[in-house]
Design brief:
By secondary structure, the chain is of the alpha/beta class. The chain is about 35% helix and about 30% strand. It is built from six helices and seven strands. The longest helix is centred in the middle third of the chain and has 15 residues, at about 60-75.
Length: about 160
């Protein structure tokens, strides 16, 4: 294990501990650094920095990868996601120590929250949109990080 890839396992039932509900045959892979993702996609730095139309096809993947690396960097947090038979998916389920359901969007306003709403109606945990730009309708990753940090220090 060179540590260049982060694994996010699917969980069938979002309960504590999430590792007890993980489905080992369903997972997503994230790279430890978004620069590696850009290199693997053979995107030039100019494409990424100037955010041209080609980048707009990949900004969701870059954003989700960035959030995964930020969540992991805070103490090696285990990453999970929830999916319901191809109908709905929540990008991240994390525990700190309660469960959080996180839907990641590049721009706050470009979000479809149907999956998160379905999840929140079925499972009692804190649900939120994590975004990077635009008119705020959720939290930025640094705000979530602060909240998780405070909860950890209270325990």
């Amino acid at each position: 294990n060179a540590g260049l890839v982060l694994v996010s396992n699917c969980i069938s039932t979002p309960q504590l501990p999430p590792s007890g509900y993980r489905e080992d045959d369903k997972f997503k892979l994230y790279l430890l650094d978004v620069g590696l993702l850009g290199a693997m996609l053979k995107l030039s730095m100019k494409t990424i920095v100037q955010k041209n139309s080609l980048f707009s096809h990949y900004n969701g993947a870059f954003t989700e990868n960035y959030i995964a690396q930020q969540l992991y960097s805070e103490g090696g947090r285990e990453l999970y996601y929830w999916a319901k038979h191809g109908v709905a998916e929540v990008d991240f389920i994390i525990s700190s120590p309660k469960l959080y359901a996180l839907e990641v969007k590049y721009k706050f306003k470009e979000h479809d929250t149907a999956s998160l709403k379905l999840f929140a109606a079925q499972y009692p945990c804190k649900s939120m949109i994590i975004g990077l730009q635009g008119e705020k309708s959720g939290k930025y990753i640094w705000e979530l990080s602060k909240e998780l940090e405070l909860k950890s220090s209270i325990l």
